[in-house]
Amino acid sequence: LPSTPSMGWGVAMVGQVKVLTPPHTPQNHLRVSSQITESTIEITQSSKDIDTARSTVLDLRRTVQTLEIDLESLRHQKGGLEANLLEVENRYAAQMEHLNGLVLRAEAELLQVRNELQRQAEEYQALLNVKGKLETEIATYRQLLEGGEEFR
């Protein structure tokens, strides 16, 4: 068979591979074995790191879910407390309105009592004045009567 260019190319490639491939020596074998061991250790450590990261992510997801549940619970609790507060405020306003009505009625009654006392005090003073005048007149009439008997 005549030699073809493709065959020459194949022979050249085999030569290059032999040049690029290190010879099988114990040092090369140890170096390759050491590199494989280092790679295995790195892969093992990376796998552990990935497992740790996955575990951390799962823990964080659980924590987030727990916090979301807690938040929703607190929102419901807040809503309930706000409703209770509104109810208490409404009751308080109604009670204050009732008490203000009682105070206004008591103040009105007090004003009536004061006015009545003032009127009675004025009447009493007028009666005292009349009594004083009557006593003066009676005293005058007595003197006249007593003095008149002396004239008889």
From TrEMBL:
<keyword id="KW-0416">Keratin</keyword>
<keyword id="KW-0597">Phosphoprotein</keyword>
<keyword id="KW-0175">Coiled coil</keyword>
<dbReference type="Pfam" id="PF00038">
    <property type="entry name" value="Filament"/>
</dbReference>
<dbReference type="GO" id="GO:0045095">
    <property type="term" value="C:keratin filament"/>
</dbReference>
<feature type="domain" description="IF rod">
    <location>
        <begin position="1"/>
        <end position="152"/>
    </location>
</feature>
<protein>
    <submittedName>
        <fullName>K1C18 protein</fullName>
    </submittedName>
</protein>
<keyword id="KW-0403">Intermediate filament</keyword>
<feature type="coiled-coil region">
    <location>
        <begin position="57"/>
        <end position="137"/>
    </location>
</feature>
<dbReference type="InterPro" id="IPR002957">
    <property type="entry name" value="Keratin_I"/>
</dbReference>
<dbReference type="GO" id="GO:0045104">
    <property type="term" value="P:intermediate filament cytoskeleton organization"/>
</dbReference>
<dbReference type="GO" id="GO:0005198">
    <property type="term" value="F:structural molecule activity"/>
</dbReference>
<dbReference type="InterPro" id="IPR039008">
    <property type="entry name" value="IF_rod_dom"/>
</dbReference>
<dbReference type="InterPro" id="IPR018039">
    <property type="entry name" value="IF_conserved"/>
</dbReference>
<comment type="similarity">
    <text>Belongs to the intermediate filament family.</text>
</comment>
